[in-house]
Amino acid sequence: MAASSPPQVPPTLGSSWFQYQAQLPPQTHLPLDRLYYYDTPTHVYVIGTNSEAVDYRLIKFTKDDEKLDVHFSDVYDREYMVNLVKTLREVSGGSLQTGKAKGFLGFVRFTRGYYMILVTKRKEVAKIGTHRVFHVTGTTMVSLCEPQKHQFLRRRSDEEFYRDLFLKFELDGAYLYYSHTYDMTNKLQMNMAGQLPWGGAPPPPQPHRI
């Protein structure tokens, strides 16, 4: 019977991170930082690809006032996406609205459906290992709400009031940062700890006074 290897145990206080080769996880894929959105009266389509522009992914939003109705598709090639965009233009006529973006910033809701906030401009401000960190310098908001009928008959709604109030807060100059590949919700130590043999962070050093 072969002897089993001793189990990996967390380091003791004062142990060096280098001793256990703590490191950030490598960047294993190119980020989908080339987004194209197509806004129709009933749906919003977001097509994403990377710098190689070989594989494409599609996200389809159905405009709904009650919920966030989203469908994620499989991976498609360029020919499929070209045909899809051509079909959207033919079906929508002159009502198709399009735009480009660098990433998703999030979703916001007021009194009706959701709005999708996209990053349109960015500036690289840091690099942590191979992971790039960007400062958001431009945004756009795309409505995922159902289209309203008889626009010329209705009065200004609460939805418009809150939406306009939200837009007055200039997101472009705000302190908004993001990374496609680095988890900015965790501390650096926690991100490095995931690569340790036992999958956890070493204990913190003993407290000291300054």
UniProtKB/TrEMBL annotation:
Main localization is: membrane
- Subcellular locations according to the entry: Endomembrane system
GO CC terms for this protein? endomembrane system
Native species: Bodo saltans (Flagellated protozoan)
Which terms does the UniProt entry file under GO BP?
phosphatidylinositol dephosphorylation
Please provide the record's keywords in A-Z order.
Hydrolase, Membrane
Q: Where is the SAC domain?
A: 103-193
Which named protein is this?
A: Synaptojanin, putative
Q: Which PANTHER family match?
A: POLYPHOSPHOINOSITIDE PHOSPHATASE
Q: Which GO terms describe its molecular function?
A: phosphatidylinositol-3,5-bisphosphate 5-phosphatase activity
